[in-house]
Structure prediction request, 671 residues.
Amino acid sequence: MSVLDRLTGALAGGDVRVVDLTHRLDPDFPVIVLPPEFAQCARFRMEEVSAYDHRGPAWKWHNLTLNEHTGTHFDAPIHWVSGRDWPGGAVDEIPAEHLIGPVCVIDCSAGTAQDDDFELTPEIIAAWEAEHGPIPAGAWVLMRTDWSQRTGAEYLNMAEDGPHSPGPTPDAIRLLLERDIRGFGTECVGTDAGQGAHYDPPYPAHFLLHGAGKYGLQCLCNLDLLPPTGAVLIAPPLKIRGGTGSPLRVLALVPGGSQ
Amino acid sequence: MTLPYPKKKDPQKRTVVPTLPPAMRSRAALGLSVAAAEGRFALQHCGECGAVQYPPRDACHACLSHDLSWKDTKPYGKLLAETRIHASPDPYFRERLPWRMGSVQLKAGPVVLAHLVGVGRGDRVRVDLRLDRAGQGVMVALPEHRSDDMEDDPVLRAMGTHPKHRRVLISDATHPVTRPLIDALFAAGAAHVFAGVPEMWRRPHGLSALDGLENVSLLPLDVTDPQSLKEAASEIGGKVDILINTARHIRPGGVLGHDTTAARDEMEVNALGLMRLAQAFGPGMAGRTADGVNSAAAFVTILSAHALSPDPAYGAFNASQAAARSVAQTLRAEFAPSGLRMACVYTGPTEDEWHQPLPPPKVAPKALARAVVDGLQQGLEDIFCGDVARDLADRWRSDPGLLEREITGGGA
Prediction:
């Protein structure tokens, strides 16, 4: 029996379960909001082309408007200025084998329940490794915050001094790059903290990850259903020529019975 | 005479279907409607002999000259004769009998036929040129000294769009005009204000100004989102008597150097947004224009006066304004058979962050609110708010080509 036969058998038998880490694309789902003088991220919009009516008697379909970075989405290296010259750094150029891989989940939910600006630090990563072993090269690292359970205005958590949501410090990202991770993912609207503009460098996750050719995932959900290690992430973005990112369906394969 | 607040509708009775007074006019007579739409009292003046004439004709009644132009005219006169009409074959008037009409000797010269409100034979009167339910200019003779209660008269109520007892939807509560507009609407007797809020998830600015207001309900509404419009129209569509579209997306910049992302947002909100809003609420409102005291009366949209001729410093925005104006003109034609009035409020640069470096004069939110509510009280269709808008409109009317060159060609 081949590995794949065993996998499909395990999927059918429940020894491997599929967890959907994707939010619904919905006009009311928040997108990143920049200062108004900058060009803005398109919201998700859906307009009926026909609905079994005079516009098309037997079929229903919609035209969509969205940004590459609307909803649950993938960031490619060329998304950031630091990764603009990374060879193969656009979504259509990323090798397919990079799109499936192991995933480590660092649970920060206890901290984020107390502090909207909670930081993922090297110390937290070190403590996680002490318990679960070193983060393997080529792994996705996801920061669990339970932020995805927030709805409406609580999600961006916008205040007069900007949004407040958790994220990694520059040194935490540097440590993850030392581990040669594949990418970093969060439940918030971006891989960086809401106040990430005030770090040095600003937006360290975007700046450092993409500068090193790594990927980002954001607006994830259901991270509470993943084990700290041992799951497999499937995250293929749309194949958009020169695309800097893409909305996508993110799935995880987890061992059966795992919570 | 004080108009009582209407009782709740009897749900077993059919909603009255709108009828209209006679709408056909000659090309010459349409001049009355143009003036009435702007709240001006204008008559034809002969360029050769100076005669002032009514009714409008293609030639001067005194000297047969074709050199006729519409000029603002003093609206004062004396009621010569009056009659009370008790029978009419016209469905609109049959529903409203008896109806009083009279002839007024204007000081400007001609004798005009007018609907009568609060005046009798021999009285000194002031004549208004107002739009009737068919959207045509008609004369109404009123006392020289007005009172607010006169607007309650069935004749004026039938042709007007007064906010009294009406329920109003403001499409975007984040516009700085919202609070003064709500205050002005309530001062004019509006019963309730619904205010749409786009993107509640970003905690939009401006809503704190509405905290604690009575008879104001906020609801999610985004003119770029068909689903939100559908949901809002399903909930309150049957209660919207006046709709005021305040949704606006504006970014400074011309065309060559401006990115099309911002221009697309401007088109989405300002032009297509108006279209979506009209599609969601227009048909329901058009079906309720004869629905008693709080019948649907007007659909209002706020435009930049540069919809008429662009200011290159806001080139992409003004393209969306010209598109929105064109959408509004088509809506006016489409609403006409129902008697629902489509009003455009043209404003000069507004006092906000997008016009911050511009010198005055700029239109303050309070002034814009006043213009909208004044326009509704007078039943206007084309409302110009602020000196910049009025001046631009005057120059545009007299010579659009000259105006374009004045704005774009370094005219000083």
User: Anything to note?
Assistant: Residues 18-40+67-255 of chain A form a domain with the Glucose Oxidase; domain 1 fold (CATH 3.50.30.50). Chain A has a mean pLDDT of 96.
